[in-house]
Amino acid sequence: GRDNMPVSHDGEDGQAIDQTDNGRSSLHLGRPPSVRDLFKVMSRIANSVVFERQTGYATENQRTICLAETMDVFAAACPDVKSRRIFVRDFAAPAWSLTVDAAVQSLESRIPAIDQHDGFVHIGRVGLPTSQDEVQIDSGTYACTAYTIRMMESIGVCIRENEPVLLVGETGGGKTSILQQLARISGHELVVQNLSLQTDSTDILGGFRPLEIHHVARGVYQDF
Which residues form the Midasin AAA lid domain (predicted)? Predict the structure, then answer.
C-alpha cells in the first residue's frame, strides 16, 4: 500500500535521498548498483583477504579491507563527501559490523604502508609485481600525502583486478602525477597517449596509408 512506499527528500547536501519505511537511506551515488558490482566486490575481497578456514570470524582489519573494497566499487564515483558518509553510515559500516567512526577514520585518515618484498611492491592492501630491488618512495619532486597514497592503493587494486579506471578532476589536480608515481615505485613503464578534439581512432589503433608502388620501389632501387 501507500504506507510502504519510499519517500524522497533532500539530504544535507541537496542530493536526493530515498527514505524507506525502516528509516534507512538509499542514496543515488552516480549510477545504480548492479549484480556485476556485487561480484566485483566479492572478487576483490577474495584476492585481498585471507580468512581462516572453518570459522565465521573476521578480524577488524579484515572487515576494514572489505569496507574499502565496498566503497571503491559502489561509492568511488560519487564526488560528494557527505553522500559517501551517508552511504557509510547507513549501508557499508553496518554491512561489515564496523562503527561509523571507525569506518570513516579508516576511509579518510588511514595512511597505507608502502613496502617491497618477494618481488612485489605493496601499497596498503594491494601488491603489484615489480622488477626493482628497492622501492624509492620519496622522489624529491612528488609529495606522497595520505590522500594520494590511498588513491594509489585504489588504482593498484583496479590494476590487479584488470579493471579499467577513469580519473575525473580539474586540470592540474594531480591525476597524471599519481599514475606517474605509481608507475615509478612499481618499476613499470607508463605509456601516455594525449587526446584532444582532433584525435582520431587511427591515432590509437593505427591504420593503413595508401602508397604508390614507385615510391616504395625507388627506395629499393637506391639501396641496391
Answer: 27-89
